[in-house]
Design a protein that fits this description.
The structure is a single chain. The chain is α/β, with parallel strands linked by helices. It is built from 40 helices and 33 strands. The strands form seven sheets. The chain has an eight-stranded mixed β-sheet with strand order 12-22-21-14-15-16-17-13, with helices on one face. The chain has an eight-stranded parallel β-barrel with strand order 24-25-26-29-30-31-32-33, surrounded by six helices. It has a five-stranded antiparallel β-sheet with strand order 1-2-5-3-4. A hairpin with a 4-residue loop joins strand 21 and strand 22. Helix 14 runs antiparallel to helix 15. It is elongated. It starts with 11 loop residues before the first helix and ends with a helix. The structure holds adenosine-5'-diphosphate (ADP) and magnesium ion (2 copies).
């Protein structure tokens, strides 16, 4: 997401320095434009320093230094260390303190900070420079023994954990023990003496675990900490986070060395985190938390429950007023909502961080709209501030934030927000039991320590997935995202106990079958059932405002793919300006129509051949085939006329593109293999039971088991309405042989028909325009139904705008001939209805040859629509179902392909076909209307491509329409900006 919209005010000298091999910048030397060199944190500290805000002095080691460290095999680049020492001397001068000086010790924090904020992914050490001598100095200097020992124990634990790689528990457990022994509820209840004791205990723990003394030399501490921060860039956590968020791995992290200020010096001290607006709702008010007598990490780590920032107004009114003014100033300066960290040392405020705050989808939209109304942003900037994915999120059902606030006591923990969405279900700890629970009608959350391919059936049965281990690219996360399942991964605080079928979170135990709620958008896990709310597009007023601005900016129209009137209505409510694809065959699949469709299909080839004969040459069979076929078609014509009329009504005044039948006919028939199985079973059963009318179920079962194995035999028995006999007992049940025989005859006929239509490669076989040319009656019927539906709606006083689309054209002659056949049908309807209907004929461009000869094809088409699913399949030579199941996901993981080309249009390859299609098509017909109706029409990156090559519209699923409106505007704005440059 864009953060600073303002042009960076990079000075010439700074720009030069950035490429000058300079590895360290003091805060005074940097500025906000130097994110890539200083990281977000460093750039923010520099910008605040130069704005005159109270920032403790410090310096930033650049991301280039981090990269050099890696290139040199984890060696500090030459000169870096001398430079660090020189800058430490400078800090000593500025602060009047000495690094390692027991009389007046300088302490620093060593903080990571990459160009993109990666919250919680990398490390920071506070209070560095402490050792047994400097602690004494701190005591003497401040007269505050408790504070000094508090700083000491914090430092040893943090350094041990982050720099020396010890576990948090190594320190947490003895600390909790001590608190328990001392009957101290909070760490602030501990005395100086107790804190000293625990600090020294920590140092011993380090000694035991690392078999070395705790490093007391401050420069040694500093070097180790700097290396630790560099190393954390390539830690697994950070690596996974970047994979998930598509952040490149070669950016590196900067290291910030900042003079310590102390929020733990008593009740006039404290620390806090605040947002300039509410990051959940976007409301314009300071939002945050603070703790008195604490250090920075306490707020985030939740060691004590912090107070609301508003309470600071009463507790420290002067500091609050100062902070509020600074917050406003920073927001105005960056022209975006800021996430701020601050510390108050004995009544003096220090700013420690500013960055653009992460926010929920509703907040992102509200803030963008509000900032336009406040005169801070232009409409174009606001449009660019919102990620199209946030619109998707806004329109998913989600947990009610208000309810969440009330249920904080039920919060079990937090993991990675691995796949967005809200899910409620029974916690089930085993995939098989998850399937069983689902079959029992219960919603399920599959809870596993981690998942593997063995768990996938359980995931499929679940409403959501929760794991205790693993990051954003763990199996659970990747699979859940691909299934669109909400997922929270790596919730390490959960203790999952498979044998006991329960999990523990702190003191709470959740047993299998109890309800939990997981929020894949935030990573939160709750006990019980959180209420969800359906998004109501009509109620999202800020979104409507933002989209209305988007509509002013975009050039691309946004249409929708819809097969039914109710989808069309929804699409129209979402702002669709037409229907770009109605797949008529979906109407064929409806249960009550399928028998008619099958009758039509089973006779299609015979009837077509018979109709080609002279009447006198036709046999009785020919006549029967024609009669059945025509009757079925007539029935379907009536139904389709109604269907189309419904669509035209819903889209009154807007274009509706209807695609004539596209898939091969046998797709409407049962699968070949299934029919083979069923007929074999039927025949065998009849043979086994000989000529008798009674049947020996035991005998049948034995025979079936021998032939098909236990499972299939049981299925066949059920199908035959036979129950398996009790062990040993020979039961006999009456069976209607004639019914079985009838079924066998029917199934065998069907099998022959399916066999005759079978193709080696149906995707490349008799379908689309080819089918229309071989069996013209079906598309003729559809054309009549379209025109008649339109005529009916026109007679009602509405304006239907049908566009008839012919799929899979690869050669101009296919289109020319089809069109001739269909125009005759149109003429017939126009004549009989007496209604003048404004209709168009056009074609899909989805076969590569179609794109290559688009100029010839355009002569016979009034519009093109790119079917980029097929174009991608045929351009790559992949069959999508096989590819996605077998290798494509691996291709993407292994970076053989940058993305799944079925999700994001392959601009470099398939995009060339699109571009060529547009250019050649328009060269032949200047105002040829061109759109895209593949799935790519709803993908922001692909939409940008469509904008660039000059399509007239994108067509996507109704729910994607708002996303596409925004993405189309962003594409238009971005291309104007590049042109202006
Ligand atoms: P993160 O990026 O995880 O927030 P930070 O580097 O910002 O890590 O530091 C962690 C915490 O320590 C923050 O609350 C921060 O404000 C605090 N902190 C960092 N440096 C100092 C310092 N020099 N003096 C006091 N507190 C600090
Ligand atoms: Mg921070
Ligand atoms: Mg297609």
């Amino acid at each position: 997401m864009a953060t600073t919209a303002r042009k960076p005010r990079k000075t010439a000298s700074k720009a030069r320095a950035e490429s000058n091999g300079k590895l360290i910048y003091t805060f005074a030397e940097g500025d906000a434009s130097m994110r890539s060199t200083l990281g977000g944190k460093g750039a923010g500290l520099a910008e605040m320093t130069n704005a005159g805000l109270p920032v403790p002095p410090g310096f930033t080691i650049t991301t280039q230094a981090c990269n050099a460290y890696y290139e040199a095999g984890k060696e500090l680049p030459p000169g870096l260390w001398d430079d660090v020492v020189a800058h430490m001397k400078e800090l000593e001068q500025q602060t009047g303190k000495g690094f390692g000086d027991p009389a007046n010790p300088l302490l620093v924090s060593v903080r990571s900070g990459a160009a993109f904020s990666m919250p919680g992914m990398m490390d920071t050490v506070l209070n560095l420079g402490l050792n047994p001598d400097t602690v004494q100095g701190l005591i003497a200097l401040t007269g505050n023994e408790r504070f000094a020992w508090d700083a000491w124990r914090r430092f040893v634990a943090m350094f041990g954990r982050i720099v020396l790689d010890l576990k948090a528990e190594d320190f947490d457990e003895p600390f909790d023990e001590l608190k328990h022994k001392a009957k101290a509820k909070l760490d602030t209840d501990l005395t100086a003496e107790q804190l000293r004791e625990i600090g020294n205990r920590f140092a011993e723990i380090v000694k035991e675990k690392t078999q070395g003394e705790f490093p007391t030399d401050p420069y040694r501490q500093l070097e180790l900490a700097v290396r630790a921060v560099f190393d954390s860039w390539f830690g697994k956590r950070a690596h996974d986070y970047r994979e998930f968020n598509k952040i490149p791995h070669d950016l590196g992290t900067a290291v910030n060395v900042v003079t310590m200020v102390f929020g733990n010096m008593g009740d006039d001290s404290g620390t806090g985190v605040a947002f300039t607006r509410d990051p959940n709702t976007g409301e314009k008010a300071l939002y945050g938390e603070y703790l008195t007598n604490a250090q920075g990490e306490d707020v985030v780590a939740g060691v004590r429950t912090p107070d609301k920032i508003s309470q600071m107004r009463d507790a420290m009114p002067e500091v609050y007023t100062q902070f509020e003014a600074i917050a406003q100033r920073l927001e105005g300066h960056y022209r975006d909502m800021q996430d701020l960290e601050f510390t108050i040392e004995r009544g003096t405020l220090y700013m420690l961080q500013t960055r653009s705050g992460k926010r929920t989808a509703p907040a992102a939209i509200k803030i963008a709209v509000d900032m336009v109304n406040e005169g801070v942003l232009t409409k174009e900037e606001a449009i660019q501030r919102v990620d199209p994915a946030q619109i998707v999120q806004l329109l998913l059902p989600r947990f009610d934030d208000a309810a969440k606030e009330k249920m904080t006591d039920q919060l079990l923990g937090k993991g990675l927000n691995a796949s967005p969405g809200a899910a409620v279900g029974q916690a089930i700890f085993d995939p098989d039991r998850a399937v069983a629970a689902k079959e029992g009608g219960h919603p399920v959350i599959l809870v596993r320590v981690e998942t593997s391919p063995d768990d996938v059936h359980g995931m499929l049965a679940a409403k959501g997935v929760l794991t205790a281990r693993g990051g954003a690219t763990s199996h659970a996360a990747v699979v859940a995202r691909s299934m669109g399942l909400p997922c929270v991964a790596g919730a390490e605080s959960l203790k999952i106990d498979y044998p006991k079928r329960e999990m523990r979170a702190g003191s709470v135990t959740v047993r299998e079958g109890e309800l939990i709620s997981i929020d894949g958008t935030t990573g939160e896990i709750y006990a019980g059932e959180l209420p969800t709310i359906e998004a109501r597009f009509e109620d999202e007023h800020d979104l409507a405002t933002l989209l209305s601005w988007a509509d002013e900016s975009r050039r691309l129209q946004v249409w929708a793919n819809a097969d039914y009137p109710r989808d069309a209505e929804r699409a129209r409510a979402f702002g669709a300006q037409g229907i770009g694809l109605c797949r008529t065959e979906h109407m064929f699949f409806e249960e009550d129509r399928l028998p008619t469709v099958r009758r039509m299909i089973l006779n299609a080839h015979a009837a077509t051949a018979a109709k080609a004969k002279a009447d006198a040459d036709r046999t009785d069979d020919d006549r029967a085939a024609i009669a059945t076929f025509d009757a079925a078609l007539a029935e379907l014509e009536k139904l389709q006329t109604d269907d189309f009329a419904g669509l035209f009504r819903a889209m009154d005044g807007l274009p509706v593109v209807i695609r004539l039948i596209d898939p091969p006919l046998h797709e409407f028939l049962p699968a070949y293999d299934e029919l083979v199985g069923e007929t074999t079973r039927l025949r065998t059963t009849l043979e086994l039971t000989g000529g008798s009318n009674g049947v020996d179920a035991g005998l049948v079962q034995q025979g079936l088991v021998k032939l098909f194995g236990k499972k299939d035999a049981a299925r066949a028995m059920r199908r035959l309405n036979l129950s398996a006999p009790e062990e040993g007992a020979a039961a006999s049940e009456p069976m209607d042989r004639s019914a079985l025989e009838r079924e066998l005859t029917e199934k065998t006929e069907l099998l022959h028909a399916v066999e005759a239509m079978r193709e080696q490669n149906p995707m490349l076989g008799l379908r689309g325009v080819r089918l229309g040319l071989m069996v013209p009656d079906v598309v003729k019927m559809q054309t009549r139904a379209i025109l008649a539906g339109a005529a009916r709606v026109a007679a009602e006083g509405l304006t239907p705008l049908p566009e008839i689309m012919i799929p899979l054209v690869g050669h101009v002659n296919e289109l020319r001939e089809t069109r001739e056949i269909l125009e005759a049908e149109v003429a017939r309807i126009v004549e009989t209805s007496g209604q003048q209907v404004d209709y168009k004929f056009g074609t899909m461009i989805e076969v590569p040859r179609g794109a290559l000869t688009a100029d010839e094809i355009a002569e016979h088409a009034e519009f093109f629509s790119f079917g980029t699913n097929d174009l991608t399949q045929m351009g790559f030579g992949y069959s999508r179902d096989d590819a996605e199941g077998k290798f494509l996901m691996q291709y993407v993981d292994r970076k053989i392909l940058p993305e799944n080309p079925f999700q994001v249009l392959d601009a470099a390859g398939i995009g060339q076909l699109v571009r060529m299609g547009v250019e050649k098509g328009r060269a032949a017909k200047k105002d040829l209307k061109i759109g895209i109706c593949g799935e790519h029409g709803g993908d922001p990156q692909s939409i940008a491509f469509c904008h660039e090559v000059g399509l007239n519209y994108v067509s996507c699923s109704p729910f994607r329409v708002p996303v596409a409106r925004l993405a189309a505007a962003q594409a238009a704005i971005a291309s104007t900006e590049t042109r202006d440059k």
